[in-house]
Every structure is written in C-alpha cells, then in structure tokens.
Amino acid sequence: KMMSTASVQVSRLRCNGQVRVAGRNEFPPVAPGGPARLSWALTAAPQGKRDLVQVGYELHLVRVDSPLADERSGTPAVTASSCCHEWKRPDCALQWHELQPPDCRKLLPGCWYRWTVAVKDSCGTEASGSSYFYVTDPQALTGVSWIGSHDIRMNELRKEFNVGETVVSAIAVISGLGYYELYINGKNVDPTRKLDPAWTEFDKRVLYATFDVKDFLVVGPNAVGVLLGNGWYSQDQYIPPSVQKPAYGPPRLLLNLTIATASGRTITVVSDESWTGRSGAITFDSVYHGEHVDARLLRPGWAQPGFTDPTSLWLRASIMNDPGGAVEPQAMPPVRVEVTTMKPISVAKVITNTWLFDFGQNFAGWIRLHVRGAPKGASIFIHFTEIAVPKQNSSIYSGVIYTDNLRAAQQTDMYITGGGKDEVFEPRFTVHGFRYVQVHNLWKTPTVDDMEGVVVHTAADEIGTFESSNALLNKIHAAVVWGQKSNLMSLPTA
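RESULT FIELD:
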C-alpha cells in the first residue's frame, strides 16, 4: 500500500527481498530470531520533481490480527493490545532498515505485523507506505501428523468443525505433497497460487505456506477441504534417459488451522485421523504426462459444511510417514497464474474430429477449455506441443504434432464430460510448455473463444524493462522475457 503527496511516492516495499502484492494472501516469512531487512524505494510521482533524495525516515511496526481485513480498512488503527515498535532516523539516507535479533525477539511468533515507513525527501516532502510480514512459529506443525492413504488414491480430503463465536484471527499453516489446494467453506483461499509447495528434495526439506483465513470462517458449522496432487513427490516423473528415481510415496497433507475467538478461546484444527478422504475427479496427474479429470466424479459442495455423498467411498485418513525433510516456511515467491489469459490466433480442423489451436507463441501453463453440448461420458483428449508440422508446400497444418523433443513425456490431458450444457476443463496439478493444442473428440466445431491459455510461472518481481527504436531488438527482448518466465517454476528449469 502506498501513500504519497503529489511529488513523491514510497513504493516497492520489501521484507527480506520479497515484495508483497496488495490484496494477496501472501506474506513474507520472518524467523522469530530474525533478522528482517525492510527496504523501500523513493520514486517521483507523475509530474513530480526529479533527482529526489531521502534525508530521513520513521518506521512503525504494529501487530495485526488479520492483515487482509487490516488492509481493507484503509485507515488501520493501533490498539492497546497491539505490540507497537518504532524507530526514528531523521538524518538517514538509507532506504532500508534491518531488524536485528534483539528487535525480532520482541515480536510474537505466529503473528502478522504491519510495517509503515514515513520518509522525508530533500525538498521537505513527506510520504509513506506500508506492507506486512509474518513471524513464523516453529511449533505450529510440531506434533501434527501427515495424513493420506495407502489403500486408495486419496486426493480429496475434508473435515468439519464448529466455531461458536466471532472469529478474531485465523491462521492456516499447510503443506501438501506433492501439490495442494486449500479450501474453506467451499472457497479456495488463494486461487491464483498454483503448484504449491515449491519443489525440493523432500527427504531434506519440505516447505509450507501460511494463510490469513479469518474472512473464510463463519459462526457455526465450517468445513476445510484439501485437494492433493502428485507433483514431484509421487509417480514416475523421472523418465529415460534421466536417472531413475523412485517415488517418495502417496500424496499426503500436513495442516494446522488456529482460530482465535472474541472471548479469547483458541480452536485448533489439525490433520489427523478424524479427516475423511476419497479418490476424486482427478483420476491421474503428472507434471510431465498431464492430468485426467472425470467430471462425472465431481461432487459440488465437497468442501462445505453439511455435505453428504452416498455415492462415493469416503474413508478415514491414515497417519502417513514423515517425508523426512526439515519443515520450513516457503520464502521464495510462489508459482501463480497471470491475470490476463492468452487467446488463440486460429483454430483449424486437421483430421476427422480433431482441431488444432494456435496461440501464436510458446508459453508455459495450461488451457481452459469450454465444452458445450457433449453427452455425459465423452472422452476429450488434449495434446500440447511447441511445433506443428505443415503440409508440404503449404501453410495448412497436416494434423501432425512434433513430440520428439518431449522424449517419453506424454504432455496430454484428458477430460471426461459430466453431461452439463457448458462445462469448463482446467487442470490443477500439471504444467505444459506449448504453442499448439490439438484437441480430439469435441462434439461441436470449436471457435477460438472456446479456449484460453493460462500463463503460469513463479511470481518473480520484474525489476527492469527494455525498449528501443529497433523492432527486432524489442522482439528479441520479449522472447527472452517469455523464455525466462516459462522456465521459472519455483526452480529454474531447462
């Protein structure tokens, strides 16, 4: 959040190098012992003066119960119960402040803090900006069990609980291997965050995330649901000629939801054997090979309280072995979907009942496909490729897609229709690099409006731009940027 006068702005607020985007359920983690490096930039507002220099600053630190609610309030107040600290540097040009261990030890673990910096520039102009960070609690997941199943492919888990009074704060600490999505009362707590947690060697390190979920809870019955994907944890992601590595085991969940109420009561919901789970509509998922969804197995409301499902086999979750790695907060930016989707530039029928969509450029992510009028149980196959082969002496594609560069990776999604009038298929736990999408067995001739390209990459901060009078150089730069984004999936890939 930025506050400014007409000539200067405080922007790019960072905690330990990480920028938090306003409105996102994402907060840079700070260890209880610190240190925490808080930094900012001083920029001239439009029509403002140039060559501005900071001459001093004040930093205020306030504990907040819910950063999302605090941010929405616009004018957050400091309450008597808040832990407030301030530092004044009236003669300091440094645009950063480091909280040393003695300062950090005063901060409470398992709490959010809003930090506000007020600066003065060389012209006497004042401006301020604020952001948030989270002080991690090393004990939050201590004693909490990993859960899953060795008996079925348990990738859809749920638990109901009751909240008897107004919620003051609610903190969800979660890791799901290989990937997870967290839902409370039917709502995804962070729908743009994907392929979480980041890829690690799980027998050495496992990453978790922390969410502010106060706004998702209600007084009365509540439910928490988690979807699990294989990710890099389970299945045969390692394909020849890569070195063969065994899967770590079935997917599993680790969660602690701590709720503080108005009377001072604490409600704790953890992953244990009281959860139930089933094999859901995602019948297969693999980073390399794609995802299969059977819409006939979808159960609307599965993550809402009062849900019943007499047609599925819901089993009690089992306690699973610890993956072995140290459980640590994820400090790197998560993988996210871009707000703007890609649109195909063309779609053409290449062979009987098969169409080729062309997005005009390569990118990494997946597609969102609208299926209209298909009968229940129809299987639609979706192949992704970077190259399509044209007919000889023609610009018309022959229907042959080039896949040699994929080696043994199938890079194919499958969707079995549920019989709805307008269904939407979008995978969750795979990722593709592609320009062309070949779709087989659609029941109506598609248009370019029936498909969107969803761009996915690590939400790294873009700190520079390039533009010249040479159109070719501009295109080369754009291709480099796209290449970098497409190969940032928590780790740089090839």
